[in-house]
Amino acid sequence: MANSPLVAYPTSALHPNLPTTRPTSTAPSPLKPIPSGIASPSPAIVVQADPSGAVTLANDPFIPAEQLNDWEKHKYVKGKKLGEGTYANVYLGHLRSDPSQLVAIKKIKVQKEFRDGIAPDAIRELKHLQELNHPNIIKLLSVFTSKDQNLNIVLEYLPLGDLEGLIRDTSGIPYGPADVKAWMGMIARGVWFYGTVKLADFGLARAFGDPFTTNRPMTANVITIWYRPPELLFGAPFYSAAVDIWSVGVMFAELINRAALLPGQTEMEEISLICKVIGTPTEDNWPGVTSLPHYAVPDDKTPVTPREVYMQRFGSVGAEGVDLLMRMLALDPRKRVTAREMLEHKWWRAEPRPTRLEDLPRNRKEGNAEKYGQDQGRKPGVLDDKNGNRGDKVARRLDFGAAKK
Amino acid sequence: PAKAEGPYDVFAGGDFVPDRYKLQKQVPKPPYKKDVARDPHYTTGGYDVRDYYVQAMYEAFAGLGVFVDDEKEMSGRL
User: Pfam families from the xrefs (chain A) (predicted)?
Assistant: First the structure.
């Protein structure tokens, strides 16, 4: 288990100097103390401030939590505000001991609805990020509370903007199929590594639903509408990691064409677009679909889009790439490719070879820091509309009949 | 002129293969009344009970060789 990638041995928030992997059988004696980053083995309370002002923590179990928190807080210097959202303010920061080490400090706002405690988004984000340690998943570096009892989350700082910016900036940076493959590799690994999550936005992530011990269905309203799979749009009470494969499939298509694939403004419109672009979900291609709680499709049914049409639209990634894309966008989640199957697909081995990380086109435009700040400040999984209002366009109920009248 | 590289490793060295247990392809019949493996109420949305077994087996064995007291002593952690 020591080397399991599923068990992250995160650098302890309190002891960042400790090795991140546990000592394994390579240690000569299992009971021999291993050198650690802790400055003093003395059991007394010893706080050592080095010249840079960083505080090291001694080996004592009886240090008051407030003090631990203050030391943790003291490790970082908060800089300018990168962005403000409904959910959090995001600041640029750096390590006090090494100002070249930049971080993003996300100060979670106290939300009106959750005055009595921590907002569930923050809990979820913390709960999942602290478990995950993977190069393709944003790193949680530390957590502390500030004087006003706000939760502060210290995250890896990603200044290069996101793929969305790159995709939309059609006049800017050119990229090719090999680049698409390299990015897709990173996205796919991130999704495979931890089922139901988004890569830098874990506020709405959750572990597998457990149908044995709970009857509570999972919430269907969890993925930003453009990337929301049909089973969630139809209100399926139980779903699987296949929801994320759909989202990745939509991103894949967007990376290839540099245009949104299914830019619905409402759930209803999103379903219409899926029917038009990918095909109408019916009992034939998805047994049981008509019994899903919010099943509703336009009357004029469209057959599932054939391979030739995909080849015309997305042929630049080759026949193998189109095959993978079609499997990711299978309407019936049971027929959708799994994350593992996705990574085992032959497209990855087909020509061209994915671009190496260091050679990928980068978005170095100004404004990325601000974009990062806004993204991190936004309530997880929800895109703000132009007026900064959230969720106004999300129709709760689907009623194609009414819409037509 | 790319230098010679091995085949692209899609898992980037991170594949997970459990070394203390092996999952069977066959899904066991659950000792519960609900047949979540076949009941369309669960499966139509894509729910796959095998994911649950993957999780349950993983949690059953995770850390079996971890001796918390000894290792805390070893690393000098709080």
Answer: Pkinase
